[in-house]
Specification:
Blueprint: H1 12-26, H2 39-54, E1 59-63, E2 76-80, H3 88-98, E3 109-114, E4 117-122, H4 128-132, H5 134-142, H6 157-160, H7 166-183, E5 186-191, E6 198-200, E7 203-206, E8 221-224, H8 233-238, H9 281-296, E9 303-307, H10 314-328, H11 338-351, H12 357-363, H13 367-373, H14 389-393, H15 400-409, E10 414-416, E11 421-427, E12 438-444, H16 457-477, H17 494-502
Parallel strand pairs: 4-9, 5-8, 5-9
Antiparallel strand pairs: 1-2, 3-4, 6-7, 10-11, 11-12
Helix pairs in contact: 1-11, 1-16, 2-11, 3-7, 10-11, 10-13, 11-16
InterPro entries: MTMR14, MTMR14_PH-GRAM, Prot-tyrosine_phosphatase-like, Tyr_Pase_AS
Organism: Coturnix japonica
GO molecular function: phosphatidylinositol-3-phosphate phosphatase activity
Amino acid sequence: MAAARGCPPAGPGDRGLAELLLEFSRAQYRAKDGGGAAANKVERIERRCLELFGRDYRYSIIHNAHGEVCAHYPRHIVIMEFESTVQVGKLQDLINRSKMARCRGRFVCPVILYKGKHICRSATLAGWGELYGRTGYNYIFSGGSDDAWADAEDISEEDSALRNADSQLFDKVRGHDIKLLRYLSVRYICDLMVENKKVKFGLNVTSSEKVDKAQRYADFTLLSIPYPGCEFFKEYKDRDYTAEGLIFNWKQDYVDAPLSIPASLTQSLSIDWSEYQSWDLVQQTQNYLKLLISIINSDDDSGLLVHCISGWDRTPLFISLLRLSLWADGLIHASLEPSEILYLTVAYDWFLFGHMLVDRLNKGEEIFFFCFNFLKHITSEEFSALKSQRRKSLPPGFTLEEICMLKQRDRGSTTSLSSDFSLGMESSPGAAGSFTYEAVELMPAGAQAQAAWLVSASDRESRLEEVRSAFLASYSRTIGLKAVPPSPSGAIGGLLEQFVRGVGLRGSSTL
């Protein structure tokens, strides 16, 4: 994409995103901190998310007004119901029973609905260090804080006696976690941790499904896809926001989780997974995203869970990339414009699910910025979920090329293709004022659900580039401008000038 010279004036959508980013950079969202000076701003953000979800989905709400379900999850947890058989009452009961099983109480939560499948996020499994640590013990048995291991100390001799019962406790809490996963029809669990267990203060404070000694998760398809944590993204920032050539050091002592993916899931991807430790950050992120898209695009009805340790850095990175990639294909949130899907993704996937942007910015760990700037690396058709669907979805006797010819010849009309299929063409409501593309529905007679969207590769690219450009412009005006005062001459300071050039808002270079 050609770099823009200067920044255009902020529009209404930009101003909403700017307010969101400013609030995001001010404090971490916590559901139980609903009051305070920023309450009205946070409520506007929450209401806006619900309105954007409601454009394309019927949904129910799991209420979390005071953080009683999870302190770092939204106060209004959205459960999308279109093409879903989930009953929210049953789901809420399973959540209340299962939340102890995972780090910080961050339970398995559905956040994207695609082809009737739930794409979920969570933290990793809690280890006995969290469950039995002094604050963890209070959390489980006395309703205390869910920041169990954040301030954990070495447990006392009396507390350590509880370890004798850890198997029974794990059977109970992990059993509830498994029931929740099954209720959501989740089969695939993708673990982004680079370690098997998180060790803190000498304790195994968290674990993961892949090292559960009792093999409780053996019926699920477990994927260990280790991905660098937020600390690694300081190197990204220090390299002028350049991910190309940036390779994680896999020889560090704490890194002990090898990549492990069932062969049945890799056959169609043409990726040499044995080379993963030599990939730079761009190639690693691209290949993992291809894997996730391939999983959710399979012919079965199984859902997907993505998690890292706490579920608020690497997890929203891949959840966001999935959401934006599927949206760019016209497969989810089909009526949202680029500015709207950007707002929803920043607000819901990052802010309302507790990403600690303030802390990450202070440390220079800019994984949040990386996520949206990375969109330029996934614009091609090889990342499209439609790639394998297009020929599957064609009505009998028609090729994709013939369908495209029909689109040109019969624009805006309804043309009978056969006794079993009809072709409906219309402009996307999400494309108004920005770009155009055609939505093609291939529907069995009498069917109500959309069967397929045919979006060209160029449309996908323009949609993602528009989202990226809007993010970069708003980020530079808010977070990116904060710590860089103008020079006495009124020109942009040297550091900011490098930033603006780096992200492609000025000059001819792009990041």
